[in-house]
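Allow me, if you will, to draw on your knowledge of protein folds for a short while. A protein sequence and the structure tokens that stand for its backbone fold form the material at issue. I would ask you to consider whether the tokens describe a fold that such a sequence might reasonably adopt. Thank you for your consideration; the sequence and its tokens are set out here:
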Amino acid sequence: MVRTLLALNGRLVRGALAHLLAAQGDIDVVAEAATAHDLRVALLGERPDVAVIDFDVVPVHQLTRLAAAADGSHGGRLLVLVDQRRAGRIRSVLTEHRGWIGFLNRDVPPGLIAEGVRKIANGQLVLDPDLVVAALEMADNPLTPREREVLDVAADGLPVREIAQKLGVSPGTVRNHLSRIMAKTGARTRWEAVRTAQDSCWI
């Protein structure tokens, strides 16, 4: 049995996929999560073979950390469902996933998700070719990984001091990152920078 964790937005969607996967006979849904925090807790508590994750539940810069927390090298792997319009945001992760993270288009038939769970649990590569093409065709991201991380947190509307606390850096470091981000995006405020980066699929 493939022990599977579901982390998806919406109880109805999550419940429907849980029912479908459980009906496969070789997949056991051991836990469900609705937030990034619940996902991390469930990964550590349940140690599933595969976690099926909605891309909107976890910031992209946290995916490789989650794969490490799931101990991807020893079985725990992530299957991420992504809207093709936001494929540019996975571009940086595609070179880092080492086969521990699979990506499928969010609009694929449910049966293909079940197939993806089986494949990635068996150590096979799971990459939706349309997503890969879309990601590679997106404009190059001018933001560094740390700048993307800062802007991802800033998108939640937090003040500089709270952003610094969440990232474990000083407020001055956050201000420096935000200044560089605004220069690169041509934005006058951090809110404009967030919108520009989101519209360009940089975060």
